[in-house]
## 1
Amino acid sequence: MQDEPGEQQPPRDQTGSGEFAGEKRASQITGQEPWLSLIGTVISRNTAESSMVVDDGTGQITVRAARLPELGSLVRIVGRAFTSAGKALLDGVIVQDFSCFDVDLYRKVLDLEERVYSQEGDFHP
Amino acid sequence: MRIRLGDVWRSEFVRSESDFEPSYILTSLKQKVHRVKVVGTLRSPPIFGSDNSYARFELDDSTGAIWVSAFHGRVGMVERIAQGDMVQIVATVNEYRGRLELIAECIWKVNPNFWLLHRAEAARSELEGRKEYEKVKSIVMHERNVLEAKETAREIGLEPEVIESVHAEIAPREAEEDLGAEILGLISKLDAGSGVRVEDIVEGLKASHSSDEVESALGKLLDDGDIYEPTVGKYSRI
């Protein structure tokens, strides 16, 4: 759609392209990622420090978040990584409730995407 | 079309020349898409215009992030969503100041399993797109010209317009390969042992190619290791 004449145009900035929250495993996080996303289980929480530890099966990472989910919850974190005392941490900008998430189906979709979008590009079902 | 935001970013935006035709993106598989269906998370809280004439938010689907705008009657749909919500959006594509954005037509919240369905369907669309692209490429390479290729495409139910995009992609590559072969042939013919001057190569091909085209092709042949420079400005085959 072209901009409509006389229409008030919203402010646009130049940030909406390159930086996206790509899916990462906890074990891959270096602390340098401007945005990332991670799916895992809350295995401990520290209300005094507003932080929790999330385990995704490949490793664990401490996530700072304004709202802490219940212990044992399956969550998806969208956030920014940083390092503190040489350790990678996550600023959980968004914490999504993934309690209804079908993890087996997720693994199948990841496998499908791996085959479809791999460099060979010749996958046929 | 169900699509990942990363694939939207890899597409080329084509602004419509006419008021009656929508602008579109041309994907890497040369599909013309003017309306997309995407699923992602609101990464930022929505911004609203002072008189609710627009709303705007950033959507992230883990393969790309893009700003989405809604205008006038559609602003109400944005009032019902918040940062962190996972949503499905049907939107048209637009470019504003050189940057792609989406203009929302429908927005609704979805649960995380719907996101998996979307991802699987986007993968299926990708596979179907590849099959269609291969068919179109085959038509372009086997027909004598674009008009005949378009007619063949129409007969088997493919979009004839795609023929032009695929032809535009393939034709320069073929022409470049042809020129490279001509240059190699000319060097073989003229080289007495000390190489052939670039001026002589340009002169030999001036009926069909400009000096810029020849010099560019010489550069590519050098890069590919097909020729070398025994002395500056002279070329020999390897």
## 2
Amino acid sequence: MKRGRAYEEARKLGERYPVEYSEADRRVVLERFDFPPGWDPQFGKLRYELPDTYPRDMPTVYVPKEMSYEGGSPTHLLHGISPYGDSDWSKWCIEDHNANWDPASDTLVKLTTMMRASLADPYSDNPFAEGSA
Amino acid sequence: MSDRRLRVPARVVRELREALLQADEQERFAFVDAGTGPAPGHGEPDAPADAEGSADAPDLLASEVVPVPDERLARQSKTACRPEPAVEREHVGDCYDRQLAPVLVHSHPFSDDPRFSSIDVEAMGRFREWLTGLFPDRPFGFAVVGQSGIEAVANAGERFAALPVEVVGGWKLDDPVPGAVDRFTPTDGGERDGATASNGDAPTADTDTPGGDDGVGERFDRNVRALGTDGQRRLHDATVGVVGVGGIGSQVAEQLARLGVGELVLVDPDAVEPSNLPRLVGAYDHHVGKPKVEAVREHAWRSSPADIDVTAIAEPVEAVPERLADCDLVVGCVDRVSARSFCNEWAVKHLTYYVDAGVRIDTTDDRVVGMTGYVHLVAPGSTACFDCLGRHDQEAARIERLSPDEREAELERGYIDTEQVSPEPAVIHLNGLCASKTVSVATDVVTGVKVPPDFIRYEDTAHEMTALTTEPSRECPTCGDEGVLGVGQRSFGDAQFTPEDGPETATSD
């Protein structure tokens, strides 16, 4: 339990990435995430918006709006959807990828792993199942 | 309820007894890490700097039992025990780091109803001197556990103040804690008179004033004959939050007002729509467009004008959690699963009773195939919470969070269908039945006249009502071992974390 689940998970993420955690805004930003091959630029931010009901519900994920994949924009990247009052971001529909979020075992660290799989196969509807076959 | 208490879930009482009372009759030691409740009457969480001292200091909320292993005790016998100083130092520091308050608990296995000994009091004084030197103005307490009883004190400036023990869901203990209070025990320490309708000498009301100064006047005479004088006083002293005042919540509010509940806090962001009028008790055509809470407040007040305070808050509950701070019990009658989850978590954090109520009508081709209602009592740490039973619906919560643009886009792409965002079928008689059972459960909790059921399910097709028993789950993300039971309202602010070896650049996790 320590300082609360979101805080502790952000701290754990901070062992691998520079992380900014805002309790009041319910926001976690990975400052320098290494995007999988095909994405341009290679390094960029990842932003997790935590719902009031976290960890029962999955965070909403945003990537910088300038991100592109092999010069295009996968369907799961919604350029028209950004956090309220901040248009520098685009929503990544991780939920469309059959994420099957389990609050008992999934964490922000696991979400980051899921994001890597999702971004590595951005046109797939189920990159996790295909990746494990 | 204004006196400071130690609130302890039934589960924590059991854990303390198991850890500290063993067959060898040796004294043992444990820490109870406790959150701090909202300061009484202020509606705001209390900062640690204000957390000690007066009778208005916030309650301590027992969150977690951390037994000290025998090998880490510096001294242990059948009449004494004391942890190694390093154990105390490390645990107390860790506790404050997590914004919790340590309660140092030892056992008197030789006693049924224990009291601190003169040696205990002397040692506690030395500990206070040491601790307040290291951590000034931080709350802490002591408790001693016997075969049945528990005595507790908290620091109060230059002295210790007795801390009545309030067992949350105390009816779940096979061996109750003697002398423990419950949430609704009158602050003058009055005992229940046990009066019920079946008593030959049923009490009658004070007829001097319609409601009576203490809520047991002529107006409530029939209630008093059913619930007893003490039960009616408990209702009068209670503050109940009703979150969601639609078809169920408006009827819950009216019934609570007519029962004689002293204070209602109504929370709902919605305005009255014409399609609400067939079910919204107290709302009429002229209320259309006005906040539901205003219509229901007016109706509740008219139902019991001299005896009730009603606060109306036209906001989503997630935006005003501090307004629940003074509630002794919260009733959730909302149609959003995320609001239910929020209320459940708030109740678990603050060890406050929560009653969740809802109905569901299933139709196929415009034909009703099922009508059900349920009432779920959450006594944190004593009965199953919303998440113990897996009642949270991630997909429904996700749809609730979508902006209008996102919702439109998902409808176009076929990710959600129109049924998922259409209004649910609803009828007043099903709502009314659910509201009455909700009030029945709330009345059981407040008055203690009978033991409340954990969960009621009503099936309208067969007219069957079933009461179910529930157990909290240790794996529950909300009230389980890794959850937020009793942590109160904590705030750690913003933080930056940086890898020791610089940013990670590997391509796999």
